[in-house]
Amino acid sequence: MPVPQIVTVVGAGLMGRGIAYVAAVSGSAVRLVDLSEAQLMSALDRIGDDLDVGVQRGKIDAEVAEQARQRIATSTDIAEGATGADLVIEAVVERMDVKHDVFRLAEANAAPDAVLATNTSAMSITEIVSCLDDPSRGVGMHFFNPVPKMKLCELIRGLQTSPETMDRAEAAAQAMGKQTVRVEDLPGFATSRINALIGNEGMRMLEEGVASAEDIDTAVRLGLNHPMGPLEMGDLVGWDTRLDILEYLAGTLGERFRPTNLHRRMVAAGHLGRKSGEGVHRYDDQGNRLSRPR
Ligand SMILES: NC(=O)c1ccc[n+]([C@@H]2O[C@H](COP(=O)([O-])OP(=O)(O)OC[C@H]3O[C@@H](n4cnc5c(N)ncnc54)[C@H](O)[C@@H]3O)[C@@H](O)[C@H]2O)c1
Question: Does the CB atom of residue 28 touch ligand 1 within 6 A?
Fold first, then answer.
């Protein structure tokens, strides 16, 4: 697949807006779809800010950034947004029923040979695309947060994914500047499985009082040479999304992924991480970490 002409991204949260960014910069016309105008406007603002930062840091040309801005259209209607798309990437919440609804509408409205991709972190690609009339066109394209910066796109082959779909998804990811790996359809793939386990252990250590959150993160960054500690990583991912991932992995891979009570209470309290301004750590409105509690 050369650069797809029309890429529809369903879900304009943390991941969807990043995927829209890289697709638009690579030259595709992008249709960004979410449930509300407010969410779409907020995503467009964030994409605009990210493009500005990209230009300031010399990562992208000012003209490319301006063209990318103009290539992104928005819609609150999946059918409208997917019409004629040759690649649809869903990045809605990590729930099987919601993903099925999105995929059915995407298949009914996209181009007849469109690749239909999910950005799920952990769930079975085979099960997600089982709702399609033609599951051979369904595939996992797992991007990482923040999408403009992270180099990997994990490609996941469902049981019925065709070789042509894998090749087209790979070419599209590479056109968006990503390095790809091909992974079989097992829960959590090659990345989330490890990341969720480390993050869950970090949360368990916090719950047990092993050390302060700050010190757990510092220990893992400086002692183990991880770029981020497990708790600041959870703040970046979003503890609500991480909870959905862990519950799925606990159900499929076993008890070691069972989320902690502290984690459940944080989500119930709305302490979701950077996106809500408070998770394990606290953040200002620009997402910068506050050194002291607010
Ligand atoms: N957060 C991460 O670090 C990360 C990394 C890789 C993959 N993922 C995966 O990406 C997906 C999205 O995660 P996120 O962190 O962007 O979540 P998010 O909560 O930031 O965004 C989800 C968006 O989907 C929208 N949405 C929900 N139902 C919808 C529907 N029916 N139609 C259109 N839009 C709908 C919501 O309004 C919201 O804006 C999940 O499957 C998640 O597992 C997340």
Answer: no
- Look-up of token digits 């490319």: 64
Residue from 9, 78, 93 to probe ligand 1 pocket by mutation (most atoms less than 8 Å from CB): 93
Per residue, the 3-state secondary structure of 237-263, as one string, reads HCHHHHHHHHHHHHHHHCHHHCCCHHH
* 257 closest CA partner among 211, 206, 207, 195: 195
Cβ-proximal residues to 178 (8 Å cutoff; 6+ apart), any chain: 22, 143, 151, 152, 153
Tokens of 284: 């200002």
Question: Which residue do the tokens 């991880």 mark?
Answer: 226
Q: Which residue has the tokens 């369903």?
A: 10
Residue type, 247: E
pTM (predicted TM-score) = 0.95
* Burial (CB count within 10 angstroms: exposed 0-12, middle 13-18, buried 19+), residue 264: middle
The pLDDT tens digits of the residues spanning 211-256 come to: 999 999 999 999 999 999 999 999 999 999 999 999 999 999 999 9
Say which residue the tokens 């500690």 belong to: 229
Distance in angstroms between the alpha carbons of the first and the last residue of the chain: 49
Domains in the chain, CATH or no CATH each: 6-184 (3.40.50.720), 192-276 (1.10.1040.50)
